[in-house]
Specification:
single chain; about 300 residues; alpha/beta; Alkaline Phosphatase, subunit A; 10 helices; globular
């Protein structure tokens, strides 16, 4: 009887230790997260798009085409929500091009900005290598760039995103960052110029998909691939040549996860809002999230 009691006690202690270890997540075998953002990629355009890399990630990973934006369905406020784990009513970024809060953030982190995923990862691991590159310069005001190891604005320009892709790949190969993000300004640029779902818009998608393929290949060359979760994110869709209102064409965008520990071919069943992105990244690394965040990790995507 005493022996049985001791065994049960040991099991209980093991379960308790395991629950403590997993309280903040942490996906086994993952050392790197590479987040690739496609500004303005509408969920309702993906099925018809010529995007073999993204579609392979969907087939071999977890995905939804209906991750919902906050309101308004505009750029800066949605990127802010993606990084900050809450909506505009809390972080204060409420317009298309907000560089600073349009009204006071409900809370500020030690770097004078509402806590972002970069803030959280830096506090979780002060030695973590965190890289952020982006084509739209407003992004630099939303990420808590003081928490980044390296950040850089690289405009699309005449290279049509080759410049940022090459710079990002070079950084990956040289530094092997634990968390890195490369945020493209397409296909939003084509949507505003020619219309969402237009021929120029759809023709741009294979180009950015090819850049994603190059990034994936670079992780293989760097020896990172087997330990990397890739994320494809977008801030909003569009209708006509604009966005910002409440149609599902504007509010729904893809969210894709691919890599070790992620379920294969899994269509996400949970209701997903833009501010669930940051908590999911934190969960992958086992990082504690701020009490002020309202988003939740999408735990169903993990095996």
């Amino acid at each position: 009887m005493k022996r049985v009691f001791m065994i049960l006690t040991a099991v209980a202690m093991a379960v308790t230790m395991l629950s403590c270890t997993n309280e903040n997540g942490g996906v086994s075998g993952v050392k790197h997260v590479v987040m690739i953002g496609l500004d303005g990629l509408a969920g309702n355009t993906v099925e018809a798009a010529d995007m073999p890399t993204v579609k392979q990630m969907m087939a071999e990973g977890a995905w939804t085409l209906q991750a919902r934006s906050i309101l308004p369905s505009s750029s800066a406020c949605n990127w802010a929500s993606m990084y900050m784990g809450v909506g505009p009513e809390m972080h204060g970024y409420n317009t298309w091009g907000s560089r600073t809060p349009d009204f006071p953030s409900i809370e500020l982190g030690k770097n004078g900005i509402f806590p972002t995923i970069l803030t959280v990862l830096r506090e979780h691991n002060p030695e973590m290598n965190i890289c952020a590159m982006y084509e739209w310069d407003v992004q630099g005001d939303l990420i808590d760039n003081k928490a980044a190891t390296f950040y850089k604005h690289i405009p699309m320009g005449e290279s049509r995103s080759a410049d940022i892709t090459n710079a990002f790949i070079s950084y990956l190969k040289e530094h092997k960052p634990e968390f890195s993000m490369c945020i493209y300004d397409s296909p939003d640029a084509e949507g505003h110029r020619h219309g969402w779902g237009s021929e120029p818009y759809m023709n741009r998608l294979p180009e950015v998909d090819a850049y994603i393929a190059k990034i994936v290949e670079a992780t293989k060359e760097a020896g990172m691939y087997d330990n990397t979760i890739f994320m494809i994110v977008s801030d909003h869709g569009g209708i006509g040549t604009g966005h910002g209102s409440t149609s599902m064409s504007e509010m729904e965008a893809p969210l894709v996860f691919f890599g070790p520990g992620v379920k294969k071919g899994h269509q996400i069943e949970a209701s997903v809002v833009r501010y669930d992105t940051a908590p999911t990244i934190a969960y992958i690394f086992g990082a504690k999230t701020p009490a002020v965040w309202r988003g939740r990790p999408i735990v169903e995507i993990f095996e």
